[in-house]
Amino acid sequence: MARSGQALRLAAVERDAARHGLAPGMTLADARARCPDLVTLPHDPAGDAALLNTLAGAMHALTPSVTPDPPDGLLLDISGCAHLFGSEARMASQAAEIAGLSTLHALAGNPAAARALVRHGTPAQRRAEDVAALPVVALDLGEQATTALRRAGLKRLGDLVTRPASALAARFGESVVLRLRQMTGDVAAPLAPRVAEAPIAAEAHFAEPIARTDDVLDVAEDLLRQVAMQMEQRRLGGRRFALTLHRSDGARRVLAVETGQPTRDPPLVVRLLRERIESLADPIDPGFGFDAITLAVTRAEPLGARQSRLDRAEDAQDTVQALIDRLGVRLGQDAVLRLAPADRHIPERAQAWMPAMERNGSVSFPSSALPRPLLLFDPPQGIEVIAGVPDGPPLRLRWRGTVHEVVHAEGPERIAPEWWRQREGHRGTGAPRTTRDYYRIEDSRGRRLWVFRRGLYGGETVPAWYVHGLFA
Amino acid sequence: MEHNKNMRTVSAPILSSPSWRLRPSAQRPMPVLTAGQVHEVHGQGDDRAAGLAFALGLGAANRDGPVLVVRAGLRQPLALYGEGLAALGIDPARLVLAQARDAAALLRAGLEGARCPGLALVLLESEGPLKGYDLTASRRFVLAAERTQTPVVLLRHAARPQASAAHTRWQVSSAPSQPLEAPPGAQVRPPGLPALAVEALRWRGGPAGQTWHLQWDEQHGGFRDATGTSDSGSAAPSGAVVSLAALRTGAATGGSSPAAA
User: Fold this and answer.
1) Nearest CA in chain A to B91
2) Are residues A204 and A313 in the same domain?
3) Quick one: average pLDDT of B52-76?
4) B252-257 long-range CB contacts below 8 Å, 24 or more apart?
5) What pLDDT is stored for residue B155 in this prediction?
6) How many Å apart are CA A260 and CA B62, to the nearest integer?
7) Residue A201 burial (CB < 10 Å; 0-12/13-18/19+)?
8) Are A313 and A386 found together in one domain?
């Protein structure tokens, strides 16, 4: 279903729907009238294009030359390939099997004819010799020229072929003749086949095996320069680099590093690799040495050419990001974190720790008028409390075996459970038990604590007290 | 003239520090965590927020850039809390936290951070004895900090001070705060703003051995020296603090309540 102008129209239909008489281009209201229980989904051209691209990749199993024909076609040049599958028909059925969709196909001596046959031919006429029987719409000339041809009584391509080309060109335009001759094979209609992207990689082989780590890193830097040039040509930057060390006895060791931002900077990646080698649990065993080293960029992202700024403001940002990358390699990516706000009411859920490598722009924290501690216990720690009933602040509390006399106190600040997240909603049974009343207290030595009472007096369970945070 | 007389009484290193402030009433310098130097902050094990607030409030609050906190060997699962950081004038989005496995990884990551220009503060937090931290290791931190002009703070909980090349060493603990006005009907007064008891164990070129009572200044967003004023009863500090309870009632009743006045 797609919006065209003011009307919602069907962009594509399933086989079942087609059987009920629905067709692309029909307005949604008409379709609903024919078929009241019609299920529609929004049209997703980007998804279709991605699927077509994936299919084109899969078709490389049949032939090296595959051209996507948007929005829903694929042109396969099967010259010299069909015999590998037995026959053209078998190859076509295999292609349909690979696609896994309901497909139509046509075989012809040139791509223009095949395309016209599959798009405009009736089921009975999809053979190469049926081109002459196709309607003139198959020339894809647009509404005006097609109507002009029809008005002249030229209904089928066969009617055109027999006429002199100069007369057709004079009356209906050059393109009619060009399209026609492309279909008959008189003029070549070249294809721009989809080319699989070459992997970004470089390798080095040695006459004598090398064993020292520094030598390995020197070679790695050299390889990185090579891949940097490859990436620069394609305006890419690497996010993940995999260095494979081929030992002379056949054993392989892969060292992979990741960066937070796409990069083409060899020294930076070498530093990361050095970190990686130094932080390995079991050090690299060179044995009798490595006789080959390969480097592959397994994840790349677009990265344009960059000009360094005069004020170096960006550079500081970059160095911090590089630091985060280095720490991530050394300590593990899950150990280098940034704070992100979470839209929750429970204090320990109101923030989340995210890997710092994944930069997520600027985040703004909600500012609270109520005091919040600097450090938070997660989970809260249980304490024993003497407090006034029902909602008095603690008078004395015992925490980790130490008694704290409460001198100053403030509260309660009630934080109710998030009933909208519970299955039974606010009618749930858990609510009174998990209501929290927070108090900010100061003991005789000047320690400021954030304590809370979970549950209410008078309920079926006795409330429990916890210390949840430390104030400065 | 008065100003000049004051200037002569302080020694050169303090004068050169950007965040140096001179209180007109008492001619003694505020504790500062100078950029490009290494500072050690010692605190008791169960009083971790005080040392952290001291390091962040004096080291990072008036500088731009990310704050790198490296932690290792902490016995309690205490998480830094974003809204609490914001109250100390540090945008939580500036925080980069690195969790190191052991003391060696902590020092290594901290050194890496100290060598990186563009950070507002490098804070290493550990508990108990810090293995591998000696004169050589601290000298490395000093050299790195001098080059990048980043303040480096080693926050050591429940640790014995040991010889190092650090410029300053502080003992920080929580101090009784100046309580706020009690809301009507309340038995006790609410605790006040953050307050710290600070002792300079070592201060190269500064008055070592002195103690301060620092109190958070809501108005100017920083700690101020409140030595001697802490026991002055109910006299509210300048920039009088609105009681939290009053704030809340005010919000609830649209400011018509007498408590909010």
Assistant:
1) A365
2) yes
3) 89
4) none
5) 94
6) 28
7) middle
8) no
Selected for mutation to probe chain A from B52, B75, B81 (highest A CB count within 10 Å) is B81
pLDDT at B232 > cutoff 60: no
Residues of B in contact with A444 (CB under 8 A): 176
Q: How far is CA A91 from CA A62, A103, A123, A195, in A?
A: 8, 13, 19, 21
Please count the CA atoms within 13 angstroms of the CA of A280 that sit on its side-chain side: 16
**Is the Cα torsion angle B107, B108, B113, B117 positive or negative in sign?**
positive
**Contact: A331, B96; criterion CB under 8 Å:** no
Is any Cβ of chain B less than 8 angstroms from the Cβ of A447? yes
> Which residues of B are less than 8 Å from A367 in CB distance?
83, 86
Domains of chain B as residue ranges with CATH:
31-178+186-227+238-260 (3.40.50.300)
For chain A, the C-alpha Rg in angstroms (whole number) is 35
Q: B101 touching A, CB under 8 A?
A: yes
Residue A387 is assigned to a structural domain of this protein = yes
Amino acid at A140: D
Domain-ending residue, one of A249, A284, A317? A317
Tell me whether residues B83 and A365 touch, CB distance under 8 A.
Answer: yes
Q: Which of residues 348-387 of A touch B (CB under 8 A)?
A: 348, 350-351, 353, 356, 362-379
Q: What's the order of all strands across the beta sheet hosting A252-263?
A: A200-210, A290-302, A236-247, A252-263
Considering only residues A125 and A57, tell me which one the structure prediction assigns the higher pLDDT: A57
CATH of the domain at A6: 3.40.1170
Q: How confident is the model at residue A177 (pLDDT cuts 50, 70, 90)?
A: confident
Q: Do A351 and B92 touch (CB under 8 A)?
A: yes
* Domain, as residue range, for A230: 200-317
- Tell me the per-residue pLDDT of B173-189, one tens digit each, with 9 for 90 and over: 999 998 888 888 777 88
Q: Which residues of B touch A365 (CB under 8 A)?
A: 82-83, 86, 91-93
pLDDT tens profile A446-472? 999 999 998 887 776 788 899 999 998
End-to-end distance of chain B based on CA atoms, in angstroms?
A: 43
Residue A70: CB atoms within 10 A of its CB come to 11
* Overall domain count for chain A: 3
**Parallel/antiparallel/unpaired status of strands B67-72 and B121-127:** parallel
Supply φ then ψ for residue A115, to 5 degrees: -65, -45
* Residue A243 included in any domain: yes
